[in-house]
Design goal:
Elements lengths: L2 E10 L3 E4 H5 L6 H8 L3 E4 L7 H16 L8 E5 L10 H9 L6 E4 L5 H14 L5 E8 L12 H4 L5 E10 L5 E9 L7 E2 L13 H6 L5 E2 L1 H22 L9 E4 L4 H11 L10 H4 L6 H11 L8 E8 L3 E8 L1
Parallel strand pairs: 4-5, 4-6, 11-12
Antiparallel strand pairs: 1-7, 2-3, 6-7, 8-13, 9-10, 12-13
Helix pairs in contact: 3-4, 8-9
Length: about 325
């Protein structure tokens, strides 16, 4: 049975930087308020006519391919994670395929929100392990700035999210104990409505009404307290599940790359696992929460900075809407 390993990494960020001061000029907030609650100081917003979810993902993927020394004809599959596709349908996978000039290969999207990239990585890993594919592009990309309302009503969510994309190339190899060791996926729909965008959905005869716009039900909603409580519980749980499955301990982790949801969540998980600051990758202060894009962006930055080295045990983990949570261990 083949195994899978990461052979290339890349990310793309829009040029427009939006600081907390920029937001404070448009709604009742402050740099201090945002930093204290989230750790975020700035984020990136896309430029209409320049950036799309699919072309940002393709730009990140092209960098990953170049670093791996691979050409478009080498790619066997695309798994694209996003909650903010260019179109209602088709998905961004085929649009990225077109952008990259790939062959007529399988390309599909998954919508697992903040857990999207780890879920996508798990799917890619399974396709490689079964022999269906040998080289899979895994992409996470989001444009969220245009679904947020920059206003007093929308400030709790508007301050958190940003736009960006990351990607990696996963390839088959035959060396046991190296590359992706295992992935672990969970979900619990009990609290699905505690982190959601209700409209536009298919439950109502009229998908869009003036009332939906006026009452704010088309805006993202989050029960922040409940999300925090579940995140700090399930993050360590799913990480320990992965470690146990591979006969490893918390002390074996060299680099931990969490989904960049909130600095307070990351700090709580770091403390629970007994990790040092230099073992934890955090860039939320620069980019905010880029949802499916956050882990590949953070992983790529850490690799570029020389923080991810040959032989390191790298742990990726995420928690988000659904609720969904997931982890993977990679022996670099």
């Amino acid at each position: 049975m083949p195994y899978s390993k990461v052979t290339g990494l890349g990310y793309y960020l829009p040029e427009t930087i939006v600081t907390n001061a920029d937001l404070a000029a448009q709604m009742d907030t402050s740099d201090e308020w945002i930093v204290e609650r989230t750790g975020i100081r700035e984020r990136r917003f896309f430029k209409e006519g320049v950036d799309t979810v699919s072309n940002m993902g393709a730009r990140a993927a092209r960098i990953a391919m170049d670093r791996a020394g691979r050409k478009p004809e080498d790619i066997d599959m695309v798994v694209f994670a996003t909650l903010s596709p260019d179109y209602y349908f088709p998905g961004c996978g085929v649009l990225a395929q077109r952008e990259l000039g790939l062959r007529q290969i399988p390309c599909f999207d998954i919508r697992q929100q903040c857990g999207g990239f780890v879920y996508a990585l798990s799917l890619a890993d399974q396709y490689i392990r079964t022999g269906f594919a040998k080289k899979v592009l895994v992409i996470g990309s989001e444009i969220q700035s245009n679904v947020m309302e920059i206003s007093d009503r929308g400030r709790n969510m508007a301050a958190i999210f940003g736009d960006g994309a990351g990607a990696l190339l996963l390839e088959a190899h035959d060396e046991a104990g190296k590359g992706l060791l295992s992935t672990h996926l969970h979900s619990d729909g009990t609290h699905a409505e505690e982190l959601m965008v209700e409209h536009i959905g298919s439950r109502r005869k009229q998908r869009i009404t003036h009332a939906m716009i006026d009452d704010g039900s088309m805006l993202p909603y989050m029960n922040g307290k409940m999300v925090f409580q579940h995140a700090v519980r399930y993050f360590p749980e799913v990480i320990r599940e992965a470690l146990t499955a591979n006969n490893l301990k918390e002390s074996d982790i060299d680099i931990f790359v969490p989904h960049q949801a909130n600095a307070r969540i990351t700090q709580a998980v770091q403390k629970e696992l007994g990790l040092r600051d230099d073992q934890v990758v955090s860039n939320i202060h620069k980019y905010g929460n880029t949802t499916a894009g956050s882990i590949p962006i953070a992983l790529t930055e850490a690799w570029e900075e020389g923080r991810v080295k040959e032989g390191d045990l790298v742990c990726l983990a995420a928690f988000g809407s659904g609720f969904m949570w997931a982890s993977t261990l990679i022996r670099w």
